[in-house]
Every structure is written in C-alpha cells, then in structure tokens.
Amino acid sequence: MGSVEEERSLLEDGLIESESSELYTGDGSVDFKGNPVLKKNTGNWKACPFILGNECCERLAYYGIATNLVTYLTKKLHEGNVSAARNVTTWSGTCYLTPLIGAVLADAYWGRYWTIATFSTVYFIGMCTLTLSASIPALKPTECVGSVCPSATPAQYAVFFIGLYLIALGTGGIKPCVSSFGADQFDDTDPKERVKKGSFFNWFYFSINIGALVSSSLIVWIQDNAGWGLGFGIPALFMGLAIASFFSGTPLYRFQKPGGSPITRMCQVLVASFHKWNLKVPEDSSFLYETGDKHSAIAGSRKLEHSDELKCLDKAAVLTDAEIRSGGFSNPWRLCTVTQVEELKILIRMSPIWATGIVFSAVYAQMSTMFVEQGMVMDTSIGSFTIPPASLSSFDVISVIFWVPIYDRIIVPIARKFTGKERGFSELQRMGIGLFISVLCMSAAAVVEIRRLQLAKELGLVDKEVAVPLSILWQIPQYFLLGAAEVCTFIGQLEFFYNQSPDAMRSLCSALSLLTTSLGNYLSSFILTLVTYFTTKGGHSGWIPDNLNKGHLDYFFWLLAGLSFLNMLVYTVCAMKYKRKKSS
Prior knowledge:
two-stranded parallel ribbon, 18 helices
C-alpha cells in the first residue's frame, strides 16, 4: 500500500514540476522584485521593443559622434590626418575596452539592468559636455585664416576629450549588457524560445544600424552644414530617449541574478589547482567535486559537464583525504566545483577564436578613418549636392539593413534544410564567411585607390592637395562588402560569445567579444604608426602623407587585405578544433 502511495506522490510531484516548467522559466530568471517569472507575462518578444529601441537611440547617439569625428578633429581642432586618425582609433578602441568594467560590475554585483541604468547617466553627461565644447566659442579654437589654422588650447582639448572619454566610459558600461540582457528575455531551456533568441541577435544588430544610418546621413549632414553644436546636440537628445525607452519596459523584463565576481572564481581555480599540483586527477570524473543537488554552487548558473581538456585545471576539483574526512568543502581557494573549473576552461577554449576577431576589427576601423580620408580627396559632388565623405558609411549601414532580414528570413531557412542546424549555419561558420568577405572589402578599397592615384598622375594633381575628379560613389562597393562582413562576423560573435559562455559570465564574455574591436582599433593605430615610421625614412613622403595624392594609400589597403587573408586561415584551423560547451 505504501509503495502505491509513494508512486502516486512521485507522479504528482512530476506533474507539478512539469506544469511549473511550462508556466515558469527554467533558466533561473526572476522579475524586478526577485520572484520567479511567468513565461506568458514577461520576456520574449514583448519585452524586446524597449531594449531594441534603447539600442537604436543609443547607437544613433554614439555614431552621431564617431562617424564624423575625424572631420571635426581635422577641420575644427586643426589636427593632421595621421594625428586625427590615431585619436579616433584610440578613442574607438577605448570605447570597446571599457566594457570590461561594466561586465564585471554586471556579472558580480549590480546585474545587467542596474549597470545599464548607471552608465547611461555617465554617457548622457559626456554627450552634453561634448555638445558644450562644440557650441561655446571659448571652448573651441578660432577658424582658419587662409592657410593659418590656430591649434586648440590645452583647456579646449581638455573639455573636448573629457566629454569624449566620458562617452567611452558610458558606452562601455552599456555595451556588454544590452545584448545579453535582451537575450536573457528568452528561456534557454525552452527550444522554441532558444530559436527566437538566435533571431533576436539579428534584429538587435539591425536596430544598431538603423541608428547608425540616421547618424551617417542626416546627423553628418547637419554637422557639416548646420554646425557642430547642433550636430552633437541631437545625438545627446537621442541618448536621453534611449534611457527613457529602457526604463519603460521594466515591468516586462526578466532578470538574471549576479553570480559573484567571475574574475575571482577564475583566480580561485588557478590557486586551488596550483596548491594541489602534486595530486593525480582521477580517471573517473565523477570523483571530482561537484554539488550534490541539481543546482550549481554559482548563483544564476547551471552546472557544466566535465570536459577532458586542460586536465591540469581539474586538480582544483580533486578531493583530498583530509577534505573528505573533515567535510571541509567551504574554502573555494582550496577546492572548486567542476562547474567552476569548466568556466575557466571554456574561456581558454574560446580565446583562439576571440583573437582572430582582432584583425577583422582593424579592417572595420578603416570605415571611420582611412575610408573617410580617401573620400575627402575624391569628387564629392553629385549635381549641385555635396556628399560629406563620412556619410558614405551609410552604405555600410544600408548593406547591414539589407542583409539582416535576407539572412534571417531567407538564407537561414534554406541553410537549415541542408545543415540540419536550427540557425542554418553555426556561429563559427557564419564568422568564417564574414572574414572571407573582409578580404574582398580591403581589395576593393585598394583597387579604387589605384584608379584614383592613376587619375591624379594623369591630370598633374600629384603635388596639389586637391580632390581628384573621381566620384566618391566608387567607394560604395567597399562599404557594401564591409556591411555584409559585419552581418556575418559581428552578429556571429554576439551569438557565439553569449551561447558558449558560462551562464554567470555572459556579460564578461560579451565584453571580451567587444574587446576584439578595441584591440582592432589599437592594432590599426599601431599599423598606421609603423607604416608612417618606415615609409617616411630618408625624407620620403610615405604611404599616408597629408597630401594623399603623393602617397600610396593603396599599399596600406593591400597590407590589410593580406593580414585578413592570413587571419582567415588561422581562424579556420581554430574553428575546426573548437569543442562546444555542455550544460547539464
């Protein structure tokens, strides 16, 4: 009789658990008050318009500054081409380095929601400071008189760069959290919602580029024709709208609890494994230490299955006789769970894939530097209308806006039939396609420059610092190819680093993916410095002089094309060897 009652009890418990899994999310997400969330009332696509609206407005604000920054530095602060390009890439690199700060705060202490809210305020202050520096006469240098262009004073530089780097800090706090926070709205344990999450990353990037399109066309035109005060003020206004959009969706959001410092946990694994360096790792991984219940010891994280790589780190989870006798499992600097060890293993496995994104980001950095400077010495007029060179980047954005729905609605369903993968291509395959397209992009830019220099020579314009009568519209193919490469590589990176990262390290891994953009900008600055140093030896004008008609910008583009090709080969090897994470 007792056994019948026990079976009935177990069945009832199973039914309750099944019903609960259908009603509530299975990934540990909670509502604003910290309670378990009902699937039908929160998250999913109903929460996403507020997040996508926030990202669209914030990116409009960011690109409203970034797209035409090199023009402001050369035309208003009177810097040279190399100095302006170096300042832009250094600032852009910093914008993608500061996400590490926001990521650690989000994963360890504040959670993604409050991290976004806090750094948005810093961002808005920076936007207002930059607007004042471009609006108040005392905060900017006087206009050029003939060929005499007075330099900005130290105080003017200080105000401008304080505003600029407050923006870098603000965007850093936001960037690693917004995409992850949006993906958190989809339950990773629900197959239907998991497919929707893959689609979210496409539309997230689509929203970024809608904001970028407005900036690279309308905002750039306002800056060049109506004044920089208004041109910086409008992006500041949109940053205010971004904050309002984000807070409006609060009742619908799903929240993930912060799981403690991921950096501390990684250090604990290293210290514990070093402390037990003389112990032998058991052949049977079930003898390694892990919590007995179904939940991980790390808040907001599911357990991870043991993997056979990097066995030296497994020593951190080896139980000593003394620990077994005393039951002393509470010191994480001496004993770590398998899940904690696997977190570090996952980061190490992802690092080669991560590193190959740096060269691609160096190629992407050319859109706001060398592509613009190339456009400045081309024919920018179409009839009576003059095209600002920086606004050509709108074709990169148009390319992204064109390819995202094509990829999501047409290419994915077709590819799914052949590959059997729910997203058509794996994240790694998608990124590899993007790297190949980046080689074509740099090659197209080099071909355009070869033709431009030929024309300059034929017309006797080599020694004259004037535009060559070659239409700037010839730059469209290189921008369009760069947009196609973005859709594959950058969105693939977003998906890869979110899906492959441990649950409690998703902001950090998003920040690491953004760090490739930062290092790519620094790499671009470093290559520029090396190229300038070696090509100006012996009194030569170099590849990239102030008068580009005397230079060889085409050689610089070919150099990047060659680096991109070598990078693609390395990536292919790394991708073939990569082993995916396994959540239990």
